[in-house]
Amino acid sequence: MYYYLCLLGYVNGRADFSFNTLNFDKNFKLQEIFSKFYTNAFALGEIENNCMPPLYVGVLANFLFILYFLNSKISLKEKILSCLVIIIFGASFYINGANLLWTMGNIPAWYRYRYTFMFSFMYIIW
């Protein structure tokens, strides 16, 4: 009951939650996301204009991530779950409605992709 009241207070608060904001609009072109994994990918203007998430993790991490999926000692179940987490994060970056679920349906004031640190952490930890 407590959680319901907290959620109700959040929804009816000054944040103005609306299901109309949870749509399937695209946030950017899909092929552009891969350029954000490499050096010199950070651009402050993209963050200020809510264009692209800053996903730089390093070239070594990209190489080791590929080796993770090629390693035969890691079970198929673990690889599938890891891939599922990556797909969830990718959909959250790409689809506007999924992105807004991270902020309870409210449009962030400045920094749209506040959860990119979790993606980077999961990407590196594998």
Uncertain residue segments: none
**DSSP helix count?**
6
Q: Structural class of the helix and strand makeup?
A: mainly alpha
How far apart are the first and last residues' alpha carbons, in Å?
38 Å
Number of strand segments: 0
Shape, please? globular
Beta-strand proportion: under 5%
Rg measurement, Å: 17 Å
Helix content: 40-55%
Major β-sheet, in short?
Answer: none
Average pLDDT number: 75
Topology order in helix (H) and strand (E) letters: HHHHHH
Task: Identify the notable features of this structure and list them briefly.
126 residues; mainly alpha; 6 helices; 0% strand; globular
Q: Please, could you describe this protein's structure?
A:
The protein is an all-alpha fold and 126 residues long. The chain is built from 6 helices and no strands. The longest helix is centred in the last third of the chain and has 19 residues, at 76-94. The chain is globular, with a radius of gyration of 17 Å. The chain starts with a helix and ends with a helix. The model has no long low-confidence stretch (mean pLDDT 75).
